[in-house]
Amino acid sequence: MIKQIPLWLTPYVIGQANLTYAGEIYTYAIISAEFSTGKYAPANFVIFKDGVLAISDAYPKEYRELGLIHEIIEPTRDHDDGECLYALKQELEMAEQEEGVNLRKYISFRLAFFNDWVTYYGQKERSPKESFLLRKLEVSYNHLLSLVEAPTK
Prior knowledge:
Layout: E1 13-21, E2 24-31, H1 34-37, E3 46-49, E4 52-56, H2 64-73, H3 83-97, H4 103-123, H5 128-149
Parallel strand pairs: 2-4
Antiparallel strand pairs: 1-2, 3-4
Helix pairs in contact: 2-3, 3-5, 4-5
């Protein structure tokens, strides 16, 4: 269930949809990419903050549920590898089993996604919270990079 969208975000809401994960139904908002790009941030984004679950309309439709599930998993886990990396590994396992998803293309998409966010946070003045986020993003980016660079069997 989605909490009420904050007033500052409502002008960017262009729709909503539902997904089911772990037996729960989640309602999420679809947000215009203008929300992020107006702040010079990447157009592809996913938000799960203060009970609000949302995704950019620029995020490819066929990958949206996987990206949203990543955000649902992340705050529920305290893991040795880091919450973001743990969620990413779970997400990749789901992508591998998802009918119609080409795993190599999906990994390439997520690699570009994480690269965009690492670059964005790497170039800006950061709060301590944003610096922590950057470190988590870098770990996930490096994991994806290792998968792309791994020799194929």
